[in-house]
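User: Modeling request: complex.
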Amino acid sequence: MKLLEEKILTDGTVLPGNILKVDNFLNHQIDVAFLNKIGEEFYNIFSSENITKILTVEASGIAIACAAAQHFNVPVVFAKKGQHKNIGTDCFTAEVFSFTKGTSYDVTVSKKYLNENDTVLILDDFLANGQAALGLMKIIEDAKAKVAGVGIVIEKGFQQGGALIREKGVRLESLAIVDSMTDDSISFRSND
Amino acid sequence: MKLLEEKILTDGTVLPGNILKVDNFLNHQIDVAFLNKIGEEFYNIFSSENITKILTVEASGIAIACAAAQHFNVPVVFAKKGQHKNIGTDCFTAEVFSFTKGTSYDVTVSKKYLNENDTVLILDDFLANGQAALGLMKIIEDAKAKVAGVGIVIEKGFQQGGALIREKGVRLESLAIVDSMTDDSISFRSND
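Assistant: Request completed. Predicted assembly structure:
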């Protein structure tokens, strides 16, 4: 998505540890008008998949999922991280390993909100090592629902997440794929 | 908001510990079309306040803030909970005591996203003891910005948060105020 690549080049900052900071429009301050364009783009890509639910994980995925859901006209479900006593005990849970933190955490979805009749689109802001997306895919499988695909705003193409998802035969669509980045340059994978 | 009260009566469940569960449309599964009506209602209430930013706290406030921001045509900023190494060190921080958990946590906003020229609307899903809203108000004061008001989807009128905010002279508008609830009934405060 050309507009997104331009926005990343204009507004993004590269920090040590392969961190691409885009918190002025995507995951701390949110440019809601821009996010609606992202939501519309996901709709253009996945509109033929008969999506019934959009699944994401708190926190930064929520805004993206809601922006897209307006076009699909389906509910959003966001998985909760860690312990949530309010969510009840009848849940689907997956363990997600965070390479950044070196520890694992649980993502959880109430069984009320996913079932075998659902065709689910997973959306998230970033894809790096892919562990969160794989956790959401496990939850969808446990619910006997169908994974329609995974939509990512920014994929770090130099990390393994993309390969792990594609080798499972799941359709992965990333609006921008960063192939390399340094302090003063960011290179995107070509769409050709 | 009549429509919201009806939705709470139809879809809400009361659990032990004064928990009102509305996770099938508000804070786990999200009914995006309904949330847009809530966002529009906040716009109708606060449209004359010259809002420049909407501030909320992760996670369940994000969807509500984004729904409203589309009508105000302003950015959303969501405060992060706990430690966030990616957010940088130049931040406004407030400590929030959770009566539910009996412990405190920090809410943090980068100094880049709030300043003295901002007129800020705080939005959140629930107001109970008011500690999160008071924390966000402190952050706005630290930024020398103006608090335009606080908009809440569901206020628990039998807890102290509403009184704490109103006695500071801040405009608080709750779309539904629950005055009492039991296993089989929920009573709302009249609008008169």
